[in-house]
Request: fold
Amino acid sequence: MQNRLTAFFPAVLLLAVLPFAGNAQITITSADMPFSGGSYRTSLADTLLFLDPTPTGANFTWDFSSLNPVAQNVENWVSPTSTDILYFLLFGISDVAQDVPVPELADIPLEDAFNFYASSSSQFAQVALAGKVGGVPLPIAFDNSDIWFRLPMNFGDTDTDASVFELAVPGVGGVLEERFRSNEVDGWGTLITPYGTFDVLRHRSEIDIRDSLTGGLGDFVIERRTIEYRWFGNGHGIPLLQIDVQEVAGISQVSRIAYMDSVRDLGTGTSIAAPVLENVQLYPNPAADFVQLQGQPLGDAAVALELVDALGRSVRTWQESPAGQPMNRRLDLEDLPAGRYNLVLRAGNARQSLPVVLH
Reply:
């Protein structure tokens, strides 16, 4: 009888464990962060697809297999010393740099821009950024590093961080940017995208940003909140999926969806679809009765402009902009109700969507 009981209990324990063997929680470490020489292809999904990124939990399944890719990017991460030699002041404080096509600095366009990061076994943090204005190099070290991720990362982890940097451009203006970041690893489970199925941790960052600007238009402050949802898997370098949500004037809107992917033919007659404009500026936003749209076209087709509301209905169109010419247009928004909209740009096979908030 004793031998039968001895054999019975291990069998029961095995049956109890088996259903969970394929869904164990993972841990994210510095080995899962970007590294120098890393190159990662991502697809940008249509932000007009109204999805809710908030549901989460333990042993959760996030099914984003229906994401519709509209463009692709290749993220290049390099050694800081391989960036412009004029950024040498930042080489000693960083381990890896990211080429940034359109850096996020309020109303001050940067060229040849990079973000610089320090990566260690305990954290991954942005420590600096650099770019050029009119050919003049501007290496900017943060007064306090912006700690993106505490490592190792496990379900249930929480932390906060405050960072600040200042940029002054003679003859143009300046910006003092203050960030307060609140992080939580609020889920683990299975992620499904068009690229595949993965065991993941879900990381949520809520970032309150205050930009104090000076310049020819006077001194003023812009405050905004960004919520970044990231799904991390082991050994991939960058998030398998990232969804960014902008909160402006109390209104939330998905502003960017990017997921790791392979090369795709998007069925448009070209190998990869592309955005319509680069170095985009859209201001003021929130807006009252107009927005100014600026940018450089990436193709040689005329650019069609359409404003759609939160339900995807067309509410306004404008005359096409001439092919191949820099974009600099004032777009009338008078007589439209307050709310969130998307400004949709189309040029040939390319398509781009920009969020607009009216107050």
Notes: The domain at 277-358 is CATH 2.60.40.2550 (Immunoglobulin-like). Residues 245 and 253 are 5 Å apart (CA to CA).
